[in-house]
Write a structure and sequence with these properties.
- The structure is a single chain.
- This protein is of the alpha+beta class.
- It has 4 helices and 7 strands; from the N terminus they run ααβββββββαα.
């Protein structure tokens, strides 16, 4: 029985040493993170939130009430939730007139009016800025069916390349998963070692008490 107790204690010591080493590495990483760095990062986060946070009491409505290209049809039909449109017809002049009205009178719109068609330029941005400063961008694409088909073909090629890269590197997402499993196993072993140690202490004390009674 004494041999069993010694082996049990040795087993617990080995497990606890491994666990202690792991937690020492974790705490060492936190130790390298100084108070100055923590304060600096906190201030940066606060500043970023202030920039993104809309002004209190100001309207955040940055939708358009309507959008059109004079003399041409937009595809699909205008909907303020839809951000991209196409003019499929061939433009007959060197200029286009984009008309739009904001859904909120306090919002501002840029990119409208009579615009000269630039060679090689197929997209026109209409930026709507709400009173609070948030911006929503609508896009009008100018091009015939051939241009649009070419654009869709390029997008499909990009998607195929992404899928191909994922197939060539199938284990990329599994690296973190394996590390998480090891960390979880260490935590489980630590908890088990503590439970076993407590059980061993109770058993040893009980036996001593029984011997004392005899």
């Amino acid at each position: 029985m004494k041999i069993f107790q010694k082996l049990l204690i040795l087993f617990l010591v080995i497990i606890n040493i491994s666990s202690i080493n792991y937690f020492c590495k974790v705490f060492a990483a936190f130790a390298d993170y100084s108070d100055e760095q923590a304060a600096e990062d906190t201030n940066k986060l606060i500043e970023e939130q202030k920039k993104e946070e809309p002004s209190i009491g100001k309207s955040t409505n940055n939708y358009l009430e309507y959008l059109e290209v004079e003399g041409y049809e937009l595809t699909p039909n205008f909907d303020k939730q839809t951000l991209e449109y196409i003019v499929r017809e061939k433009i007959k002049s060197e200029e286009i007139t984009i008309k739009a009205k904001t859904d909120d009178d306090k919002a501002k719109v840029e990119g409208i009016g009579t615009l000269k068609i630039e060679q090689g330029k197929e997209e026109y941005r209409i930026d709507v800025t709400a009173e609070s400063g948030t911006v929503r961008t609508y896009i009008i694409k100018i091009g015939n069916d051939e241009t649009i088909s070419k654009e869709n073909s390029e997008k499909n090629t990009d998607i195929e390349n992404i899928n191909s890269n994922n197939l060539e590197n199938p284990n990329t997402e599994n690296v973190q998963t394996e590390e998480d499993k090891r960390n979880n196993n260490i935590i489980i072993y630590t908890a088990l070692s503590i439970v076993i140690a407590l059980v061993a202490i109770v058993v040893i004390r009980t036996k001593k008490q029984n011997k004392g009674k005899h």
